[in-house]
Amino acid sequence: MRLPCRLRVALLLLGWLLWSMSTAFASAYNARPKLIVVIVIDQFRGDYLERYRDRFGEGGFRLFLDHGAYFTDCNYDYANTRTAPGHATLFTGTYTSGHGIIANEWWDPQKKKRVTSVEDDTVKIVGLNADHPGPGASPHNLMSDTLGDELKLATGGQSRGFAISLKDRAAVLPAGFSGDGAYWIDPKSGNWITSTYYRPDLPEWVRNFNGSTPSAGRAARYWNREWKDRDGNVLGSTAPRDAKDGSPAGFYEVVGSTPFANEYQLEFAKQLVVYEKLGANSATDLLVISLSANDILGHQVGPDSPQMRSMALELDRQLGDFFTFLGHQIGMANVWMALSADHGVAPLPEFAKTLRLPAANLDARALREQINSQLSKKYAKKADYVLDFDYPLAWLNAEAFAGTVGGKDESVAEGDVGEAMKRAGLAGYFTKSQLARGDIPPTEIGRRYAHSYSPESGWYVIGIPAPFHVGITKGTDHATPFSYDTHVPLAFYGLAFQPGIYRTHAEPVDLAVTLASLLGINAPALATGRVLTEALPTAHHGGAPDAPPLSVPAPKSMQPLTPPGEEIQ
Length: 569
Known about the structure:
The chain is α/β, with parallel strands linked by helices and 569 residues long.
C-alpha cells in the first residue's frame, strides 16, 4: 500500500533528522555511538566480497555492501603481510615502521629461540592449569598506542575495550595497552583464556562458558559435526583425528578450519556483550572480533576452493545473526561497525600453474640450508649464519658472523646474506641496515619495504619473493607486497557514514584515523592514515550534513535491524 505523500515526507524528514543528529553530535564522551564493533576476518581477500556478492543474504555482508560505506581499493602499503603486523596496523593507524611488529614470530638473539609477537615472560596465562608451562601474552612489543587506548585516554578510562580471536596475537594487539580484556583459545581444548596482563583470573561468565569439564563446555558442541555446503555436499568434519605427530589433534586444528569456529567465536562475543554490559556505559565502548577460521582453512585449500566459498557464505549467515543480536541488545542506531582483514593470500601454486602462471611451492628449510652452505663457503667456516627462515624473512646469527669479514660490519654481513638469498632464487632483498638508513629506491616496492622496517625484532634481511611463489611445500601462504596479499576489504556501517561504493584509494591505516575523527578523539600517536571524508556527510555551519533529497527513500542504514519496540535502549 502506498503511503500518503505527507506521511512519506514526514518519515523522510525524521530519517534525515536522526541521521544528521547522529553525525553532528557523534562523540565518544557521551556514548554516541554506544558501541563500535570492528570485525577483522583473517586472510579475507579484498575480492571475496565481489566474488560472492550475488550469493550473500540481506543481513550479513550486504549490510556493508548495500547500506554501508564500502571501499573497493583498500591495500596495505607494506610487504610483511602477516597476521600480527596486520592487526597492529589496523588499530595503530601506522605500519611496522611505526608500530614495530614485523612478523608473527621472530628470532630473539638473547633468548636464542623464536618468540611470538606478543610473548611476555613477565605475565602468565590465565584459564589453564596452574602448572601450564611458558609465558603469557601482552602488547609490550607495540611501539604505538591503539584506537582503544585513545578512547580510554579521551574518556578518562570510562570507555571499555575488548578483543577476541582464536589467536593470541589477533586479540592482544587490537586490545592495545589499556584494553579491559583480550581473549583467545587454548589450541588443544578450545577453552577461552587470557593472561595476567589483563586480570588475575577468568570472570565467572567465561568460566561458565568453558565449563567445569571438557564435555561440559561450549567447545564440546562443535566436535563430531559434518560441514556441508548449501547443496548438501560434505566438505569436512570435526570428528577427532590425529595430528601430524601422531598425537590427538586439538580444537584449533580440527574445528578451527571449519565455519563452526566462526560460530563459536560469535557465540562468545554475544556473551561478552551481555555480561560486560558493552554499549551500556557513559562513553563509547569498543569490541574487536578477529575471526580466524578463514586463515586456518585458507592455507590448506587456497582462495579458489569450494571450501573457501562455503566458508564465506556461512560466515555471511553467521554475521547476519550476530547483527540481529546487536539490534536487539543495543539497537543498530547506537552501533557503528567496521569490516576489514589483516592480509590476503596467494592462489594455490598448483592451481596458478594450470593457468600457466610461474608459480611454485618452495621449501623454506631447504632454502635456509642452501643459503648457509653458500655463506660457509664464502667465509671458509661452516655455521648456521641464518638461524631461522620464515620465508621471505631471514634471521641472522651474530655469533656465527663473529670473526668473519662480515662480522666486522653488520651491513656487510647482511649484504652477503641477501646475495646468497638471491642465488637461492629470491628476486631481491632489503637489509635491516638499508631500511634503517632509508637507503631504498623511490619506487612503490621500495616504499612498501620501508614501511616493513622494525628497529626491534632481532637481526634480519627481508627477501623479495617472485610473484606466486610461497615458502611452504604444500598449500599456500601470504607475506608478500603483491596485490593478492595486500588487497583487503574496508567498509563501515552506521548512521555516521554516507552509504555508497567508493573507488578512491584507501588503506587499512585509515580505519583507526577515520573512527577517531568521528568520535572527536585523538588518532593513535603514530598514525599515518587519512580520514576517509568521502564517506562522511558534508557538514555545514551547525555541523549537520546535507539532507538527502526528499524524492529518494531514506537509506536503510538509518533504520534499526529490529523494530524500535524490541530494542533495549
